[in-house]
């Protein structure tokens, strides 16, 4: 049985890291998610730009669904959101604010995280029902932008995607991020193509550690 929306949201927030995965095929996606799980990263966003993305979500859910949560990323329309949910996706990430995607995800009791950048877009996403708002591309503004946004919008849960790495991760957490979307700096292509799963697990554990330490240091 899929987790409830609140259970999924709780797991994303408690672990604090969502791995953004662009694998070459479905089998590779399973290996990547298994290695991430071994390092403590339990939320896996499989981008729709992955060849056979729906099959990848199915295989990850079937193989590792009791040990973490598979979601979908780069969702641009409600049809893709629904198809991904039927494949097993427990959360839906989008680079844009599209009310139909939010409505579709909530219809199936799934977490939805639309992408926004400006204060108006962020407020619009939240008012439309976003569970978390993904600030994208976050690297052009930096962690101080979260502090600025939380001035007038302290109630909005934010996550950055774009330019997040081990060096910047603590600053994002201290600035108020509820979780971090981490792509190529965690899910490294060189490790995937060489099958170096132990190193990928070690890197995942480093992210979990850094997030935990930053949270402990944040008043």
Structural description of this entry:
By secondary structure, this protein is an alpha/beta fold. It has a single domain (5-217), classed as Aldolase class I (TIM Barrel, Alpha-Beta Barrel), CATH 3.20.20.70. The chain has helices at residues 5-15, 26-38, 53-64, 78-87, 99-107, 119-127, 144-150, 169-174, 189-194, 197-217; strands at 17-21, 43-47, 69-73, 91-93, 111-113, 115-116, 133-135, 158-160, 180-182. Helix 5 links the parallel strand 4 and strand 5. Helix 2 (26-38) crosses helix 3, helix 2 (26-38) packs across helix 10 and helix 4 packs parallel to helix 5 (99-107). The longest helix has 21 residues, at 197-217. The model has no long low-confidence stretch (mean pLDDT 96).
Key phrases:
219 residues, TIM Barrel, 47% helix, three-stranded parallel β-sheet, 9 strands, alpha/beta, single chain
The DSSP helix count reads: 10
Please report the total strand number as a whole number: 9
| Overall average pLDDT | 96
Proportion of strand residues: 5-15%
Order of SSEs: HEHEHEHEHEEHEHEHEHH
Count of domains: 1
| Coarse shape | globular
* Spatial ordering of strands, largest sheet: 3-2-1-9
**Secondary structure: helix percent:** 40-55%
CATH architecture label name: Alpha-Beta Barrel
Q: Roughly how many Å apart are the termini?
A: 37 Å
Say which CATH homologous superfamily is assigned.
Answer: Aldolase class I
**Rg on CA atoms, Å:** 16 Å
Main sheet summary: 4 strands, parallel
């Amino acid at each position: 049985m899929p987790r409830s929306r609140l259970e999924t949201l709780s797991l994303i927030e408690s672990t604090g890291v969502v791995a953004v995965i662009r694998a070459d095929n479905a089998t590779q996606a399973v290996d990547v998610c298994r290695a991430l799980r071994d390092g403590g990263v339990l939320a896996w966003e499989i981008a729709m730009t992955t060849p056979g993305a729906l099959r990848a979500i199915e295989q990850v859910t079937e193989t590792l669904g009791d040990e973490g949560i598979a979601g979908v990323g780069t969702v641009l329309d409600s049809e893709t959101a629904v198809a991904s949910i039927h494949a097993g996706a427990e959360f839906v990430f989008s680079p844009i604010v599209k009310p139909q995607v939010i409505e579709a995800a909530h219809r199936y009791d799934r977490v939805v995280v639309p992408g926004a950048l400006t204060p108006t877009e962020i407020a619009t996403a939240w008012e439309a029902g976003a569970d978390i708002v993904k600030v994208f591309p976050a690297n052009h503004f930096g962690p101080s932008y979260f502090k600025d946004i939380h001035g007038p919008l302290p109630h909005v849960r934010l996550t950055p995607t774009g330019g997040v790495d081990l060096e910047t991760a603590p600053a994002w957490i201290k600035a108020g991020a509820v979780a971090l979307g981490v792509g190529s700096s965690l899910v490294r292509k060189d490790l995937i193509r060489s099958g170096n799963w132990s190193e990928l697990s070690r890197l995942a554990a480093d992210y979990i550690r850094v997030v935990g330490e930053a949270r402990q240091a944040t008043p």
